[in-house]
Amino acid sequence: MRIAIIGYGGVGKALVQLLVDKKHYLKSKSIDIQLNYVIGSRGGIYVPKGIECNDLAEFSKNEKDITKFIPGGSKEVNFDLVLRNGDVDAIIEMTPTNKETGEPGMSHITRALENKIHVITSNKGPILLAYKKLNKIAIKNNVQLAIGCTTGGALPSINGGIIDLAGSEITSIEGVLNGTTNFIINEMEEKACSYYDSLKKAQQLGIAETDPTLDVEGWDTASKLLILTNVLMNEEKTLKDIKVEGITNLKSKDVADALKEGKKYKLIGKTTRTVHGLEMNVKLEKLEKEHPLYGVNAKNKAVRYVSDTLGELTIIGGASGVTPAAASILRDLINIHRGYRDCSN
Amino acid sequence: MRIAIIGYGGVGKALVQLLVDKKHYLKSKSIDIQLNYVIGSRGGIYVPKGIECNDLAEFSKNEKDITKFIPGGSKEVNFDLVLRNGDVDAIIEMTPTNKETGEPGMSHITRALENKIHVITSNKGPILLAYKKLNKIAIKNNVQLAIGCTTGGALPSINGGIIDLAGSEITSIEGVLNGTTNFIINEMEEKACSYYDSLKKAQQLGIAETDPTLDVEGWDTASKLLILTNVLMNEEKTLKDIKVEGITNLKSKDVADALKEGKKYKLIGKTTRTVHGLEMNVKLEKLEKEHPLYGVNAKNKAVRYVSDTLGELTIIGGASGVTPAAASILRDLINIHRGYRDCSN
Predict the structure, then answer these.
(1) Does residue B201 have an active-site annotation?
(2) Any CB–CB contact under 8 A between A328 and chain B?
(3) What is the pTM of this model?
(4) How far is the CA of B274 from the CAs of A91, B12, B226, B279, in angstroms?
(5) Cβ of residue B192 closer than 8 Å to a chain A Cβ
(6) Predicted ipTM?
(7) In this predicted model, what pLDDT tens digit does every residue of B129-157 receive, in sequence order?
(8) Distance between CA atoms of A2 and A33, rounded to whole angstroms?
């Protein structure tokens, strides 16, 4: 399978390293992945017979400008060239997310699919804005649009809904979808500290960003919930349809009181189909220890589906970091290689 | 997709009912399933253009002898006819399990695969005895052998390992794999009753069988653990390689003492790869409330994988009963229809 990486940041580098580390494993499974292009913001690398991943992984440890990579690095190598040459089977779209326009990911994904190239993406923007439209283009061109990395990375939330519950109708989705907020709450529980002290620690550890707004005010959870809802419940909702609350008002006394009752706070994203239509919200909930999401600790994530014929399904996992995120990209790539296709929607 | 049901018991009947109930849903997903044969112990039904499932579901409510079904019922309709006619794409093998010889399932599965017919089975016998050999025949003939129903029915334990962890290597498998024993322990916790009172209740409710040996002495858990281990860790172990203990010696005092400590007993099947090789055992374990399997209550089941690149994955679910079991067969059928194939082993 010939691939192109579009957008070469932390996850892209981890993916190249993974292709090195998993070389023998992939070979033993008869999965042949050849990296023909890496496209960054200043240019790219193109080697028609495949970039030597080992060399690129070493190069990337010290050097940011991939146009200097030999052989194949050049300022002239860009996404247009990938399409013009027509020598890849799949692109990995990992450019920075823009939730207003979806660009440049939106154009990359659309054009690749129209050119009968599979797309695997970690880019939430285009998926939030236009999943249904993009998936229609994929189906029409008999290729796949794989989005596992957009809703929890290593947590197989999309696969869980599409493959593990195939033939069932999902009536509700509920999840601990953001590892950063879960870590912060966990710290408040274990250290009996304030929200701000806990946030500061998360920032020091590189778990929370300098501007943590998207995480702590619930918008990252809302984005993932929205994608899961639109994809798995066949909807076309937008972020405006979700009532969103974050964790910034959580007091250490609330956390301590809950612990005394044997309960734990979690930031829960939830979609329920009711007689009045779909209800979607993100808010703090106090879970009893019998609740399947009670044990989702630290940076872990989880999702719980209720279905008509296959009952309840709770999936807990989703190791954080660039390597698990890259591994979730590789997972999608292998499943496409195996021939899995969701052409039923 | 043209199918044959081989072995028409409770799950077979539930599957026919499901094909009735899900008719519009399947049509909306462009999944066309046509039931050409039902084969029972005394003969079968054959309708070249498809059996009317609605009529068969009604018929089966009162009548056991399917050879009386009109049109198509006959004592002359058998598995050989299915192969001779060559007019099905998949068989659903659901004959009674024999863990010594695997027959008659072993022959059905082997011959179907050799005739380039997909196989979906709920029959543990042949899978316990010869999964690797059977899957090689499937790969050679470019068809699928789907076994999701053999390791927890609605619980997507096999999918979880193959698809959700694609590209990862599984280093340990741990699960609450038997709903009956989990129900019995749960009753002992909630009613503070003895093992025997709890077993009696499970039998009255039809959850435990009249002879509960396979469940309560741990052999059902061991069988499922063995299949998961051989399939997902690429092994060829047998039941003799597993150290098996059941729940029959569990005392109500032990259960009460554990609850006081905030812990719960679970019958855990576990495979771990160690420096000395594979360790496999089934035994009662006392879990803390932070353990991901702590919240697996009543008839629920769960499995937890540890992998190299995708971290931990815990899957909780698996509604019990014939309908969820049939729904797990339908799930495998739909995933085969979608084109998913695991040809990588």
Answers:
(1) no
(2) yes
(3) 0.93
(4) 38, 41, 17, 7
(5) no
(6) 0.92
(7) 999 999 999 999 999 999 999 998 899 99
(8) 6
